[in-house]
Amino acid sequence: MIDKRWVVKPTPADDRVNRLSNAINVSKPIARILCQRGIDSYDRAKEFFNPSLDQLIDPLLMKDMDKAVSRIDEAIKEEENILVYGDYDVDGTTSVALFFGFLNSFYEHCDFYIPDRYKEGYGISKQGIDWALQQGFSLIIALDCGIKSVDLIGYARDKGIDFIVCDHHLPGDVLPPAVAILDPKRKDCSYPFKELPGCGIGFKLAQAITQRIPTINVDPLGLLDLVAVSIASDIVPIYGENRVLTYFGVQRLENNPRPGLKALMRLAGILKRVTVTHIVFGLAPRINAAGRISHAKAAVNLLLAKSEEEADDFAEQLNSHNDQRKDFDQGITQEALGMIDNDPVLQAAKTTVLFKNDWHKGVIGIVASRCIEKYHRPTIILTESNKMATGSARSVPGFDVHSAIDACSDLLEQYGGHRYAAGLSLKLENINSFRERFEEVVAESIPRELLIPRLDIDTELALDYITPNFFKVIERMAPFGPENLRPVFASENCKVTGSVSLIKGEHLKFQVQQAGGTRRFGAIAFGQARHFDALADGKEFSMVYAVEENEYKGLKSIQLNVKDIRYKVD
């Protein structure tokens, strides 16, 4: 187990903290955290703690939105066949379900298309365009993909098919020849919020259509459950417009979810309250499993289901795929970790690059992430597909793995992605050369501290600050996610009061109190059984933790979720 780096975030100036604390009547630690997140005035705090649909941005501010709406309006008037095209991950499938469901509610000449992960790969495919051509589609609306498909969209244009691209990935130097390109990351797009997922772009297009075409009487707000699932699953920042969309989308999931999501929530054991964590660990893996094990069309069919009976059938199918995915994931992870554990060269390396020709392509990205949990370093897992080595790369916080892969581009056939996740393919005979080059590039550029897991701490805290009102304010900071994570605290001079329980041989449960303090709290420490003896012996310690709620037999209490423990050095 690698020791973690505890990094306390910089403390804002006392005068800013004091002003905010007095202005909104919260404790200094809460005011400190808010100031760290840029919420340092009464007005900003009011907006943050009271999300409103009025905070949503006018979709027509997005570059090319007017062109997209006009082209769709023209297609509807001329009764053209419209194809909604999307990727096979959660953002892609929710995007397709959202926009196809919206369009099909008032227009019948439309269909949707998801590429096959194994036969076509990511994004726009020639096979998909050719299928659209055969079926008589003259307009394709691409969601969560297309921004770099310059040649393929040119091919479609030459065949008489127009494209509208709705993407959130970073554009290349050349934009595709589409009739409209909706992507806030375009350099020439003045839309003020840049971090929408693909499904969010689809939602903004639906909003603009209902604003500009008054005869379409559909409320886009009914689509927010899908938008919330995509935001949470695609790990995009949850601030600004994303926070508003997630806030109201989660409310919809709690009160009136579509049948497909309701069925998945039941299978995932999400019964009442819904959080971003529930979506990430309960819904996303099941939706993703369709494209990993079979075909992602099944996920779209689930999300479009009209009745609970139909939804239950599709949900069971996805749940079964997810169980298969878990089996593949666990087996391949064990093999991968075994390769590292038994090879001194791999153990000493700054990177992990592993290849086995029969690993399941649908789970290698997950396996890469699992390897990083044990060996905290940039990781690429490769398998064989169509006589090529195909891989998924994952990185550690702070290191741009896409840039490192780019430095090896002469050894690759294809690659793409972003700072922390990427895909690539190369000839089988180039695997060893690539492994050596990638190791060389990373070893020369990665700071040593990035190879040690980092635990970010918002502020140090005396346990006596944790009151029911303190917890209530923390909960109102939700929904939590990137750029607005659940606050993490550090406390020193702590001791266990009473006994320590070992749960399932790997988790700890105990009561904790701070020296000189009056409050005592229940604590849970997942995966930290190694601390059992020291805690049971009464050793004094410091801990990093989040403040959460525990419910047991109908009784609710504040619980500390302990992330790490250190002992006082005598």
Notes on the protein architecture:
The chain has 570 residues and is α/β, with parallel strands linked by helices. It is 41% helix and 19% strand. The protein is globular and about 75 Å long.
Task: Summarize the model shown.
This protein is of the alpha/beta class. It is 41% helix and 19% strand. Helix 14 crosses helix 16.
Name the poorly predicted regions.
Answer: none
Shape: globular
Instruction: Note the gap between the termini.
Output: 23 Å
Structural class: alpha/beta
| Total domains | 3
Average pLDDT over all residues: 95
What's the total number of strands?
Answer: 19
Task: Lay out the secondary structure.
Layout: E1 5-8, H1 14-24, H2 28-36, H3 42-49, H4 65-77, E2 82-86, H5 90-104, E3 110-113, H6 126-134, E4 139-143, H7 150-158, E5 162-166, E6 180-182, H8 198-212, H9 224-233, H10 240-255, H11 259-268, H12 276-293, H13 297-304, H14 308-341, H15 344-348, E7 352-355, H16 364-374, E8 379-385, E9 388-394, H17 401-406, E10 414-417, E11 421-427, H18 431-445, E12 454-457, E13 459-460, H19 468-475, E14 489-496, E15 501-503, E16 507-514, E17 520-525, H20 532-536, E18 541-552, E19 555-567
Parallel strand pairs: 1-12, 2-3, 2-4, 4-5, 5-6, 7-8, 13-14, 17-19
Antiparallel strand pairs: 8-9, 9-11, 10-11, 14-16, 14-18, 15-16, 16-17, 18-19
Helix pairs in contact: 1-2, 4-8, 5-8, 5-9, 5-13, 8-9, 9-10, 9-12, 11-12, 11-14, 12-14, 13-14, 14-16
Q: Which descriptors would you attach to this protein?
A:
single chain; 570 residues; alpha/beta; OB fold (Dihydrolipoamide Acetyltransferase, E2P); inorganic pyrophosphatase (n-terminal core); Diaminopimelate Epimerase, Chain A, domain 1; five-stranded mixed beta sheet; 20 helices; 19% strand
